[in-house]
Amino acid sequence: MANKLELTANNKRNKAQILRVIVTHLVENSELGEEFLEEVKEETSEQIALRRLELEVQVAYAKLEAREKECEFERQQKILEAEAQQREIEAQNQQKILEAEAQQRELDARRLEIEAKASQLQLEIEAQNHSLVAQLQLEATKKQQLEIQKQMAEANNRLESQRLASGHGNTSNIHNSNDSNPIRINKYTELPKFNEEDPEVFFSHFSKIAVSMNWPMDQWVAIMQSQLKGRSQEVFASLPDENSFDYELVKKSILNAYQLNPEVHRQKFRNLKKASEQTIAEFNRLKTNYCNRWLKSLYITDYDALKNLLITEEVLSCLPDKLSTSMAEQKNSTDIYELSKLADEHEF
Length: 348
Prior knowledge:
Layout: H1 15-28, H2 35-39, H3 45-166, E1 171-175, E2 182-186, H4 199-212, H5 220-224, H6 231-238, H7 247-257, H8 262-271, H9 280-297, H10 303-317, H11 321-328, H12 336-347
Antiparallel strand pairs: 1-2
Helix pairs in contact: 6-7, 8-9
């Protein structure tokens, strides 16, 4: 190129210097415009240093950006790793929770099984206790009957001795199916008459005579049935043969037929008026008797129960007749608090 343009060649020149020489030559020969000289103007040492500094700054900035990107990548990577670890921990915790719940369900099932077995065992023990109590009561009853029979035999022997000594023979016999010794009833022993208006008086009177005469209890029905009449005879005749000699069962059946429930006893006690031919002592005895029956039918045995009964009666008397009757028929008719709640619910 230097030979073609007739320029002096210098191997030590750099490309920029060579370019300036060529452009200057072409401008002098009017082959290029002077504006091209500005583009190839030789830079000063300060400009070269500045450009070098700019390049260094750009390189440093590029390195910094690369480092920031690298740091950002590492940070994102650590975040992802931390999130993965957190999910793993949560999964482990959830697994532990599920295992704990499964163990708790298993423990609950075992507890319920143990409670069921304990309840069954308790029921069996109670059944055995009831059976034992019933057996003991039966044995005690048999023992008592044997004792009564023994006393009755002794009493009969004494009566027979007295009869023979006095020369009287005014006795009648009732044979005990379980004893070879007959039960002797003196004709002067007056049995009570059955009163359909007040059957409890009959049973109370008869039991006192039977005890005083030492009659075996299994013969009481045989002696008593001759005094029954009206509805009591019908009830006795309707009883099965195996129950017809059970005094307490016969008594309960007859009293039930006359509907002698607590309310009936209460009304008898409240409605009893002194008759003109009665003495004060007789009226007091009847009033006391009716009161005792009323309290006994409700199993009133202490002061608090009596107080509750009286308050209940007063409260019921303040209610309308229909509501009062309905409340009195409730199972817990002497529980004033329960009746009050039921009455309020009925009104509202």
